[in-house]
């Protein structure tokens, strides 16, 4: 990432909206915004597979981690969307992921310019590639500030997306079992 270029772009935005980037309250704003983008877009330069660590296990039950807080940046408006993820999978090939690794995958995949639908699918694909589970499901619930503070201004509107892979996609009984657990 080009920090200096981000800083210069922020200065230009400040000028374009009629502000003085040398004003006391704004002098450090380009630096702060550049640091923010380097943090919130860090997933663009990190491979989410790097945070997956699996362990041997003969577990066959559904593994569910709920309420994984995440934030991402809407690629259409460069505004944040924040929410919670639920990740579920049925182990395969005698491998399980460390529970914290599920949260780390969500963190890395959400740390870039995103749309919620793709974010949901990418999390599922990373987990599927990491351990070849029998099935994986990812549910995201998020509030998009591009909908709540601008445009239609629908405060507290939640967007839910869900992706099923493997047995959850193919076997209605297993999917229903998962949905009952959730």
What does this structure look like?
The chain has 182 residues and is α+β, with helices and mostly antiparallel strands. Helix content is 40%, strand content 27%. It is built from 7 helices and 7 strands. It has helices at residues 3-16, 29-40, 99-110, 116-131, 145-148, 167-170, 172-181; strands at residues 54-56, 63-74, 80-90, 95-97, 113-114, 135-144, 159-166. The strands form 2 sheets. A 5-stranded mixed beta sheet has the order 5-2-3-6-7. The chain starts with a helix and ends with a helix.
Helix content: 25-40%
Counting DSSP E segments of at least 2 residues, the number of strands comes to: 7
Write the H/E string, N to C: HHEEEEHEHEHEHH
The average pLDDT is 96
What is the distance, rounded to the nearest whole angstrom, between the alpha carbons of the first and last residues? 39 Å
- Order of strands, main sheet, comes to 5-2-3-6-7
pLDDT < 50 stretches? none
What is the topology?
Elements (H helix, E strand, L loop, with lengths): L2 H14 L12 H12 L13 E3 L6 E12 L5 E11 L4 E3 L1 H12 L2 E2 L1 H16 L3 E10 H4 L10 E8 H4 L1 H10 L1
Parallel strand pairs: 2-5
Antiparallel strand pairs: 1-4, 2-3, 3-6, 6-7
Keywords, separated by commas or semicolons:
7 strands; five-stranded mixed β-sheet; two-stranded antiparallel ribbon; 7 helices; alpha+beta; 182 residues
């Amino acid at each position: 990432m080009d920090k200096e270029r981000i800083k210069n772009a922020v200065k230009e935005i400040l000028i374009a909206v009629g502000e003085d980037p040398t004003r006391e309250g704004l002098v450090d704003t380009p630096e702060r915004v550049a640091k923010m983008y380097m943090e919130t877009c860090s997933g663009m330069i990190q491979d989410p597979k790097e945070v997956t660590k699996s362990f041997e296990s003969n577990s066959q039950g559904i593994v569910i981690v709920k309420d994984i807080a995440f934030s991402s940046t809407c690629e259409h408006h460069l505004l944040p969307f924040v929410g919670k993820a639920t990740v579920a999978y049925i182990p395969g090939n005698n491998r399980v992921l460390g529970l914290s690794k599920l949260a780390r995958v969500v963190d890395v995949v959400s740390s870039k310019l995103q749309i919620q639908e793709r974010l949901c699918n990418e999390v599922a694909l990373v987990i599927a590639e990491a351990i070849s589970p029998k099935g994986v499901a990812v549910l995201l619930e998020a509030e998009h500030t591009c909908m709540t503070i601008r445009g239609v201004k629908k405060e507290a509107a939640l967007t839910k997306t869900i992706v099923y892979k493997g047995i959850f996609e193919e076997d209605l009984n297993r999917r229903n079992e998962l949905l009952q657990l959730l």
